[in-house]
Amino acid sequence: MTDLITITSGDLTARINPQGAELWSLTDAQGREYMTDADPAFWTGRAPLLFPIVGALNGGHYRLCGSAHELAKHGFARNSRFDCVAADAVSATFRLTASEATHQAYPFPFTLDMRFALEGWTLRMTATVANDGVTDMPFSFGFHPAFAWPLPGGAAKQDHRVTFAQAEPQPIRRIEPPSGLLRPEPQPTPVVGRELTPDAALFEADALIWDDLASRALTYGAPGGASLDIAFPDTPMLGIWQKPGAAYLCIEPWQGIADPQGFADDLRNKPGVVSLAPGAERSFRMDVTVSPG
Fold first, then answer.
1. What pLDDT sits at residue 42?
2. Contact indicator for 115, 128 with CB cutoff of 8 Å
3. End-to-end distance of the chain based on CA atoms, in angstroms?
4. Alpha carbon distance 168, 156 (integer Å)
5. φ and ψ of 59, to 5 deg
6. Per-residue b/e over 197-235, b at no fewer than 16 CB within 10 Å?
């Protein structure tokens, strides 16, 4: 049995797997599930953390000061065991620190803390990255939660909408399967005003990607059913994705993005990569507030 850590506010209960510090379940007092069913016919992921990169690398490696380093898509955090360093009834904090294994892929001392806290109908998730070394540390970070589609409450799948806090008329970006690299040409946005109508056909070419997002919050749901208010104040990019036909929709705030096709520059110049000074830290927050309908 997987050793999930459970926290609850009474209104909501969250279950987190220390493997990857991954949110596995978010339910209300009626037992209704707001996360993916993780059907293995589509995708068994639930809410992986993306660190120290987001997306795929050109050729499966990045360049740093003239040397090449292999690193799998989305980095190693999602496949790493975190230590639960603090827990009470309503919150839990998980920690990943640099090791010999991570150093082979990413030669920087770091600490990644992931805190989950429940306040009534809101789940607050805060990732804090610290540079434990003596040189500037380049990295990216992203959330990758898969929410139920349809959400509980009885609304039809086709009635669900993603409504952004601001109008998003700008073009979106797409990736090139199977490399996962960013295509050079932007695509017209499927957002009408502030509203996106998700449909399986939109994801036949993989994720919808906003690399210059105006909004830092959105609402996902349908009239007559449950909805989620999602805030991500610290991340300027967003991916929305599913495997066509699956019962989930991933809403993914990112600080970082896949390599553009042909990218051969240093990691420090990769789109979306940020630099952290020695001894400094940077946090990324994602809040999910449930309206049960």
1. 97
2. yes
3. 33
4. 25
5. 75, 5
6. ebeeebbeebbbbbbebebbbbbbbbeebbbbbbbbebb
Quote the CA–CA distance of 122 and 3 in Å, as a whole number: 23
* 8 A C-beta contact, residue 284 and residue 114: no
CATH code, domain with 188 = 2.70.98.10
Pairwise CA distance, residues 39 & 56, whole Å: 24
CA distance 150 to 183: 30
pLDDT above 60 (res 1): no
DSSP state for residue 140 in the 8-state scheme: -
Kindly report the length of the chain: 293
Please tell me the chain's helix, strand, coil percentages from 3-state DSSP, rounded to the nearest 5: 10, 45, 50
pLDDT in tens, 40-87: 999 999 999 999 999 999 999 999 999 999 999 999 999 999 999 999
- Looking at the structure of the chain, the number of domains it has is 1
- Name the token pair of 108: 């920087």
Q: What percent of the chain has pLDDT above 90? A: 98
* pLDDT at 293 (0 to 100): 84
What is the extent of the structural domain holding 111? 5-291
- The amino acid that residue 283 corresponds to is S
Mean pLDDT computed over every residue of the chain: 97
pTM score, two decimals?
0.97
CA distance readout (Å), 72 to 26, 187, 275: 28, 27, 20
